[in-house]
Amino acid sequence: MKLITRDTDYAVRALCFISGSKKNRVSVGELVGVLKIPRPFLRKILQILNKKKLLKSYKGQGGGFALVKSHDKILLTDLMKIFQGPLKLNECVFKKQVCPNIKTCKLKKKIDKIEKYVISELKGITLAHLL
Amino acid sequence: MKLITRDTDYAVRALCFISGSKKNRVSVGELVGVLKIPRPFLRKILQILNKKKLLKSYKGQGGGFALVKSHDKILLTDLMKIFQGPLKLNECVFKKQVCPNIKTCKLKKKIDKIEKYVISELKGITLAHLL
DNA sequence: GTCAATGATACTAAATTTATATCATTTGTC
DNA sequence: GACAAATGATATAAATTTAGTATCATTGAC
Asked: Are A17 and B99 in contact (CB under 8 A)?
């Protein structure tokens, strides 16, 4: 029932740290040292963030990762989408056949309303809110 | 990322059907026939609902399950709590050590706000909204 | 007493989340 | 150019949660 999974969490932490760092490149080794995130897992996450253009990576000695845009432009929902798929509180539970008696399910509308609220609120949240 | 898991779903369907039934007792066999839920799984769910006093069970020939309270008194959140644990959108992600630099995490307040809204909205939802 | 129902409980399977491991590629330094 | 330090790509494994199964015991109407 967690809305936010661990990889999203780790991504947030890593991006925050990189954003706060004075260097313009931060290596995995540095991040692991500070954030205590399992190294291979963090590597995977950073590679994904690189592919998704939230980070730019630099290979070779002295390499590492740098932010592409400033932290107040990085939306929490972007991270959630990347690691957890599209934000949907309700999936198929309240579709057609909920109660076989019923054609239109009023509950769905209620859930949809809540979902919209959550999404709109989350959309307003950037990493800047952490700093 | 589903807010509602399958057992909650099944519970909703079963309770709805029982509520709509003219009989005052509905057996698992009947429910399985109509709702197409795997029998042993449904049995488990109904047993839980019985223990949690949302259903009353009757053993023996002609036995089955009956509602304890009317459908407009059964809250969706009750079912979610029973099958999915306490409703918390955010768990430990945005606690203390999010960004090691930071003491108080503003994001937590935002998430809390959303969570409260969701809970309050869900609290208003009963099975009656399905009928 | 029999049979049709639920109670209790232990087990299995599938899916998702959370990692781990390894080899390839790039690049700065000597 | 060799080497070392970094990331890229990718396959696999472990842990957890969700979903489902199976079985024997108990109850109660007939």
From this structure: yes
Residue B99 has pLDDT above 50, yes or no: no
Q: Report which residue type is found at B28.
A: V
Give this prediction's pTM.
0.86
What mean pLDDT do residues B105-131 have? Answer: 80
- Domains, chain A, ranges and CATH? 6-130 (1.10.10.10)
Task: Identify, with chain letter, the residue nearest to nucleotide C6 (CA–C1').
Answer: B59
CA distance B56 to B53: 7
DSSP string, B62-120: T-EEEESS-GGG-BHHHHHHHHH-S--S--STTSTTSSTT-SS-HHHHHHHHHHHHHHH
Q: Which nucleotides of D are covered by protein (CB under 7 A)?
A: 4-11, 18-23, 26-30
| Nearest CB partner across the interface for A91, out of B2, B89, B121 | B2
Q: Which two tokens stand for residue A122?
A: 């989350």
Nucleotide nearest the Cα atom of B4 (by C1') = D18
For residue A75, what is the DSSP state?
B
Q: Which residues contact A121 (CB under 8 A, 6 or more apart)?
A: B110, B113, B114, B117
Rounded distance between C-alpha atoms, residue A44 and residue A127, angstroms: 20
Residue A13 at interface with chain B, using a CB cutoff of 8 Å: yes
Residue B77: list chain A partners with CB under 8 A: none
Q: Could you identify the residue whose CA is nearest to the C1' atom of nucleotide C19?
A: A41
| pLDDT, tens digit (0-9, with 9 covering 90-100), for A30-86 | 999 988 899 999 999 999 999 999 999 999 999 999 999 999 999 999 999 999 988
